[in-house]
Amino acid sequence: MKSIWSASAEPDKFPKLKQDIKTDVLIIGGGIAGILTAYRLHSQGVNCVVAEKERICGGTTCNTTAKLTSQHGFIYQKLLKSAGAEKALMYFKANQAALDEYKRLCENIECDFETKDNYVYTSDEKKLEKELSALEIIGSDAELCRRLPIPVNYSGAVKFGGQAQFNPLKFIKSISRGLNIYENTFVREMTENSAVTDSGKIYFDKAIVTTHFPFINKHGSYFLKLYQHRSYFIALENAPDVGGMYVDENKKGYSFRNYKNFLLVGGGSHRTGKKGGSWEELRNFAGIHYPGSAEKYFWAAQDCMSLDGIPYIGNYSKNTPNLYVASGFNKWGMTGAMTAAMILSDMVTEKKNEYAEVFDPSRSIIKPQLFINGFEAVTNLLTISKKRCPHLGCALKWNSAEHSWDCPCHGSRFSEKGKVLENPANGDLKNCDS
Ligand SMILES: Cc1cc2nc3c(=O)[nH]c(=O)nc-3n(C[C@H](O)[C@H](O)[C@H](O)COP(=O)(O)OP(=O)(O)OC[C@H]3O[C@@H](n4cnc5c(N)ncnc54)[C@H](O)[C@@H]3O)c2cc1C
After folding, report:
1. Which of 88, 123, 203, 295 has the most CB atoms around it within 10 Å of its CB?
2. 274-293: pLDDT as tens digits
3. Ligand 1, residues 36, 61, 359: which to mutate, most atoms within 8 A of Cβ?
């Protein structure tokens, strides 16, 4: 099961760590967040190392949709209500700056970069009006659109002009060249100034955790602040060119974009460990609406969802001045990762970043989603089952679409035989064959 990106590009290979080393800044996790942060630090002459447990960008980044936009669903009405106009504007400007930075970098990188308009559609008129008025308050020139070339139920959409899309792996292949990266280098443990891997220790002054789900449980309470949400994709040939990029405001709806002669359709989504429509739903949809099309690729991915829709970027916790994090991208981690790279590279070089405050991981956690996450944790801890997640002990659920054991609490996943597929668990299931 390869995504369209993995089938079309492969980043260069990097060596495995073979001895103890020392660096000023260690970045743990070589997804797009880690690689972009390393790229920015390296460009500023900072001595930094990336430790990646497998191949760089072989995690969520190679299974994304790769839309580059500052329009993240109907986030602005939520931000206005929960964080106020000033922070909503900060969020918008940070993501616009990230989009602009991609545009600048991609001028010199062969990565199928294209400028496209982005649309978030809904059939809920009230939400549509609220989003448009939130966007007016922060001064965006978003537009209302009543006609879309996609076969879904909607009454209207909010359009952001001049957004973009690209091939993430072609982009990463280019920017990762010349960086100091160790692949197949799994960070198992952390001390205050070193990361322990199977083949050596990496001593650091500062460390940045970009492991998708942060793996250090001792600080920051990420096991309360994050859950994971999974989506499915199919890439269709002989399907229409829909012109722009589209996504439903509702997390359970569909997403569309073209890549070359393919139409990518996403959906079938669910909280990891719960039931959802998966590829079956997408295939039924394609059969009805694109009857002459042919499926060439299918894949799935999940992302970490924060309590308030804003990523966690900054100090890992209040008590860890030299430890930083970037996570909780809420399925918008392309611009989110660039925002993280800008903020974290400023923080570790002791420069002020005007957008850092809104992403501060130590902000209040008293949000309705906290109680939902708590409920899931308690329910699954009390559920009787032989299959338990080695992360925090929750009962695992069988995912019949993908033949995996998935954790409804934090989203760790394991193959049928018990091999860990997705973190935060950092080891296989015990008694794999039982
Ligand atoms: C269905 C879906 C669609 C999406 N579409 C879009 C979109 O259109 N636009 C957008 O902006 N965003 C989108 N996103 C979000 C985006 O893809 C992600 O937020 C982003 O790729 C996350 O990048 P990352 O670097 O945080 O994680 P990853 O890419 O998962 O990288 C983390 C890396 O850390 C490594 N690692 C983990 N633990 C360790 C350890 N202990 N030691 C060493 N290495 C370790 C892993 O092997 C992995 O390579 C989408 C996400 C999903 C799920």
Report:
1. 88
2. 999 999 999 999 999 999 99
3. 61
